[in-house]
Amino acid sequence: MGAESGYVARGAAWLALSIAVGGLIFMLQACLERPPPVPLPVETRLSSPAALAPFFTALAALEERQTQGPTRVLQLGDSHTANDSLSGRLRDRFHARFGDAGRGWLPAGIPFKYYRPHQASVSETGWRHFKPSDHQPGLAFGLDASDAQSEPPEASMAIESTDSAGFDRVAVEYLTQPQGSAFTVQVDGGAPIRVSTAAAQPAITRSELPLDHPGRRVELHATGRPPIDLLGWAIERHGPGIIYENHGTIGATVDIFTQMTPEAVSYELAERRPALIIIAFGTNEGFDDALDLDRYTQRFRTAIADLQRRAPQAPILMIGTPDGNRVARGCAPARCGSDAGECTWTEPPKLAGVRDVQRRIAGDAGWAYWDWFAAMGGSCSIDRMAGADPALATPDHVHLTKAGYEGIADTLFGDLMNAYSDWKARGPAS
Questions:
Q1: What does the pLDDT look like over 316-352, one tens digit per residue?
Q2: Which of 29, 63, 91, 197 has the fewest Cβ atoms nearer than 10 Å?
Q3: What's the CATH fold of domain 37-101+239-430?
Q4: Which CATH number does 102-238 carry?
């Protein structure tokens, strides 16, 4: 009787242990699957939407067919912007609702490896691309912080619209100089149009080609000496709709604005007259452990305020810095939030401070602010996104995949449209 009771007791204990272990395995599997983060509520994401009233007015004019020309949005930022997945999805969403006025301005040629703009394909041969950090004299840098210089004796580049409607406006921005040479521009195999870059003084200028029918492909050829310098080109349409431009520089901080040519920036903003400027910097600053947050606060505030002075008609929407993690080299990385020391995916110590600085500056200046960090799901969200199936973030725990960027873009667009609907419901006078 005693032995039988012992067997029963041991059996019950093994059963309990099996259930416990099974439950633990189930929980570990669920954790290892790392589902994508759940965005935090909308009220924690978009701050000061009333600051966007001028942009909402422009959107209403498009909806009510009260405007004849395009409404332009400029997104300026770092590699998150240079990668056209986030901006490309926003472009698609705005086009679908408010009309498509074309791709707009792009940097000339292929400014960096793996350059893949949406709505256009680009090719080139015989060009050198400079950025401000190259410290090459005699160049100019606009919002793209890129100067494409031809390499004699012959250089060419082409851009082709992948938009079914094509374009009816082509423009090229370049640097004039004494004894400047010429280049030719050709649309759809038509007669080449010669453009001279010679002028008494160096200056930023642009040439627009008249088109009497929609075009699909633009070819530019430079064969003379000295080299020519191109800052950008545009393929777009004159009619109403949205033009959404992304101007991003890989590795950039907000200090990139101090490295641009002031005359070029002023010229481009005056020509474009954006209805909204979106600012998206902070990741590179946040990964700098030596960053002085007090000095950064002053630099950030000054740079964006100067930009707004150059485009006073455009409200500012600041996109806060997203989540990002890093891990020590040579480690087998452990999940964010675990207790594995330097081998744990961890947010850099200055990243939250950068995020706080941006939010505070936006509030003080009366700019709208959208919390990308909250939209991702807060702390450790980049790790969960990297472990999702399919992955929503890349293994570096800094950038998102195309699907990840598109999901964030959908959330941002939804928040903007909710604010737009609220603005319309209250009436523009409010």
A1: 999 999 999 999 999 999 999 999 889 999 999 999 9
A2: 29
A3: Rossmann fold (3.40.50)
A4: 2.60.120.1360
